[in-house]
């Protein structure tokens, strides 16, 4: 597997196929591409925080509830919940149950 340029800067991001995501927009009409790129910017902003990356990596390994994430991360429940909300709003939350 070839690492993306982003993954080379931060190996924790290796699970994000950045070049593939960007290439999906190449054949779109300009108007649609602008909307899609705004969405992509929103996703990258959500992934631009170390805590959110750590949460995604933990959820990638196993399904965790908020209390488990707070224990592992050493953060307050409200902080973890807020970070999960940002991920969910960006479409990056890997959890099925919104109450976990």
User: What's the CATH first level?
Assistant: Mainly Alpha
Q: How would you spell out the order of helices and strands?
A: HHHHHH
CATH architecture tag: Orthogonal Bundle
Q: How many β strands by DSSP? A: 0
Percentage of residues in strands: under 5%
CATH homologous superfamily caption: Winged helix-like DNA-binding domain superfamily/Winged helix DNA-binding domain
Category from helices, strands and their pairing: mainly alpha
Low-confidence stretches: 1-9, 96-100
From the 3D structure, determine the CATH topology.
Arc Repressor Mutant, subunit A
Mean pLDDT: 77
The count of helical stretches stands at 6
**In total, how many domains does the architecture comprise?**
1
Structural notes for this entry:
This protein is mainly α and 100 residues long. It has a single domain, classed as Arc Repressor Mutant, subunit A (Orthogonal Bundle). The protein contains 6 helices and no strands. The protein has helices at residues 5-9, 18-23, 30-46, 50-61, 66-73, 77-89. The longest helix has 17 residues, at 30-46. The chain is elongated, with a radius of gyration of 15 Å. Mean pLDDT is 77; it is low at 1-9 and 96-100.
Question: Which helices and strands, and how do they pair?
Answer:
Layout: H1 5-9, H2 18-23, H3 30-46, H4 50-61, H5 66-73, H6 77-89
Helix pairs in contact: 5-6
């Amino acid at each position: 597997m070839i690492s993306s340029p982003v993954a080379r800067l931060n190996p924790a991001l290796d699970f994000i196929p950045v070049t593939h995501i960007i290439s999906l927009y190449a054949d779109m009409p300009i108007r649609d591409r602008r909307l899609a790129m705004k969405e992509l910017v929103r996703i990258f902003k959500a992934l631009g925080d170390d805590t959110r990356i750590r949460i995604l990596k933990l959820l990638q390994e196993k399904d965790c509830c908020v209390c488990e994430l707070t224990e592992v991360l050493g953060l307050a429940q409200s902080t973890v919940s807020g970070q999960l909300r940002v991920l969910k709003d960006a479409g990056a939350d890997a959890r099925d149950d919104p109450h976990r």
